[in-house]
Amino acid sequence: MSWTGSLIDAQKFSSAGVDLYIRLADSDLVTKQDMKKIVTITVIIGTVSILICTYLLWRWIAKHKARKKKEKEILLFNRGEAHKTFPSDNLNQVKVQELPLFNFEKLASATNNFHLSNKLGQGGFGSVYKGKLSDGQEIAVKRLSRTSAQGFEEFMNEAVVISKLQHRNLVRLLGCCVEGEERMLIYEYMPNKSLDAFLFDPCKYEPLDWRKRFNIIEGIGRDFGTARIFRGNEDQANTRRVVGTYGYMSPEYAIEGRFSEKSDVFSFGVLLLEIVSGKKNTGFYNDEEFLSLLGLAWKLWNSDNTVALIDPMISEPFFEMEILRCIQVGLLCVQEFAKDRPTISIVVSMLKSEIVDMPRPKKPAFTERLIALNTESSQRRKSILSVNNVTMTMVQGR
After folding, report:
1. pLDDT tens per residue, range 269-285
2. The domain made up of 195-231+242-374 is a member of CATH 3.30.1510.10
3. Which residues are annotated binding-site positions?
């Protein structure tokens, strides 16, 4: 039976009738062989998907374990040394584990394998390199030197302190790297450089006026004194190794290894006098009269000529009283004995003129060159001159 034309008004009978065969295109038919193909492909895709998911899950677990291991190494690198150096309760309070961990390969790529052309500077810790991450962010990588006198204690100290001091006036710590013997701290890059680049550059293209300098002084004053890693009721601590920038270390820390909040106050006082005078504290090495900026400031204070210390770039009669007040605060901060120095909270109150009657400062530390030159050196010269005999021979031609 062959049917042509449109198939309309079709019905199914409960009995009798005949089978109706309809011709369809081959593409519309699903054979058993095709069904096998579909099942096979589905099984393969499913298996591959499961394997990929299993691999990704394994990698995530491995990374998580590695991260936990690094965090443990950072927080408990040596349990015995950690207890000697840092109180355990303070270590628990400091959430170093919240710092992002960078892998070594990523940092090596960012710094062109720590190429010399990317080197920004070097210090007792090691070298600092400029880098650029894959997302375009510029960074500064502080890499601990394996031959450095400083070690993991100093690395821990900086990581702990800076991770707590996230402030708009401070360079931001982005993370750290602890892999094998590598110890690195990753900071945000400062394209405008630091304060000293503008303060001590004789050809500074953007002079800092007094209002800017005073804002900087106040801002730093609110950050200073917070870098203490002592026990709750501890006023001072001792360290076996003295590490810091010469010219800013207090005498008790530089000589005896004792540090406290008053050590920070001393450093702040040095910086304050540098900002006011535009002179670097350690720039007096070849000066026969003064050992440091502190010595010059002390002499001018005693001779009632403190105005002579003011940087000519900011010397304006309108601000003179405020600047002289800052000089007096600076001298109070750099007094030789820690007990004589004010606390940083009192310093901030003095700067804001909340404390009107300030005490007279006592002699600062590191101001003894003039005395040494006038006594020991002069006596040595006299004694040498008194025992030297000179014989002069005249040569005449014939």
Report:
1. 999 999 999 888 887 76
2. no
3. 142
